[in-house]
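Changelog entry: the M23 family metallopeptidase record was regenerated in this release. Current contents:
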Amino acid sequence: MMIKKLILLTLLFNFTYAQELKLFFEENTIKNAQTALLRLQAKDISNAKLTLLDKETLNLNFKKNSFKKNEYYALIPISYYKKPKKYKVIISYFKNDKKYFKSIKLNVIDGKYKSETITVSKSKFKPNKQRIKRTKQEYKDAMSVYRSISEKILWNEDFIYPMNSKITSAFGTKRVYNNQLKSYHSGTDFRAKVGTPIIASNSGIVRIAQNRFYAGNSIVIDHGHGVYSCYYHLSKMNFKVGDFVKKGETIGLSGATGRITGPHLHYAFRINGIQVDPLQAIKILNKLNN
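Regenerated structure tokens:
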């Protein structure tokens, strides 16, 4: 009789606790190169983590959502080259010194991005040995920044666009340079005459403020929790590395620096080190406060 009571109490506890905990994707179907937002709502849990199962396993820690009580969240960036299919995500966490596991599915579909051909001057398209060395070092330094995840969240308001202008080239467009180089457009281009003010999408710390071969004058802002916004081809930079920037401040002026065909703003996002669609990232990040 006592054993039956214990089993009944255990089942009742597990059922009650299961109802107290909620685990869900903001959107459980996303395109390649987009970001998934996984929300975990529960009281008195700790050390919540997730693993996205694939050939290259992705491991992430949940962050406390400062906008919501008893909620944790994880941003899962999906690579542009990720194969479209359903991925299994394993979640683990501790409650009352006991470790729990749950699983959930994330459906990744083909973004079906468009293609375009671009012609640039040979001097910029075909770098010499010195330029190859420079671009490799610039890439290495940038990735070191993007892979650094600040545990402190640096924004407390919704993200905004860096300017109010027509989008001239969407994120993800497949690009062919001079019929030789194949890649994809890693950001969103906004129409901007030289000297147009560019504002910070949200508050954060400047981690890159440098002239680079491809991106020209570049400012990269760390917003915390692995979220970075990037502003390229500027004619002027108003901040230096280490400066704190407030949302809406003018970080610089648009220009035509770097390897481009004309003046514009190239706006990009990195989340947990991976390049993602910046406009979709803004949309999903602003869900945290809703």
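Residues 1-19 have pLDDT under 50 and may be disordered.
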